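Sample pair:
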Amino acid sequence: MGLTGGRPRAAIALAALFGMGACASSEGGSGNERGDVHGDAMAECEPVEDSSGLSGDQAIELEGEHTLVLVARTGPAAGARVQGELNLRPQESELQQPLDIDGRPMRGTVHPLVGTATLPFREVGATVPGDPASEDPEAPGVLVLMSTEGPAEATASILLRIGSEANVRGRFAYDGAYTVLRVRKVEADAFFGGWESGGANGEASGYFCALET
């Protein structure tokens, strides 16, 4: 049985907005080693396709330390799986509201969380612009973007944009490398979705599972 949600935590099961950055990429560590706790995480991660029940107030639930598995479905490394670490924390309050190209607050979008990712993105064909492990709140390694047209309980889009060059506050780039995780399902101690990337390694996409540790 694959990991798409619903298994007890005691079992330790796994679980536009792109803002494309520069083409330089960083891997952020090996992250492919398996520990005793998450030894079956890569093998058991399976895709979740439906995000119709996702709400904006779930974005803050992604906070914490996670084991992250990426699986490639398309691209130069189709079929490959990698495992690493994803750590998310609240963004500083004065930086949660993104600015448009004129420096004015953008409506309908917030940046509730930032963090770091440490895993070998290149092994699944993903290209990460800059440092995925950057802890700079104005150029974080991971930036969570939540957008909705209605109130927090409305159906929302929750993205994790990877790479410090893509996440520089106030920077708008329309080409270059990108890697984005699209959240499709959130549970008490895990979240799931799909990812897509483009850049020097070509285009690639797949799915991911993240389990709180």
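The radius of gyration is 16 Å.
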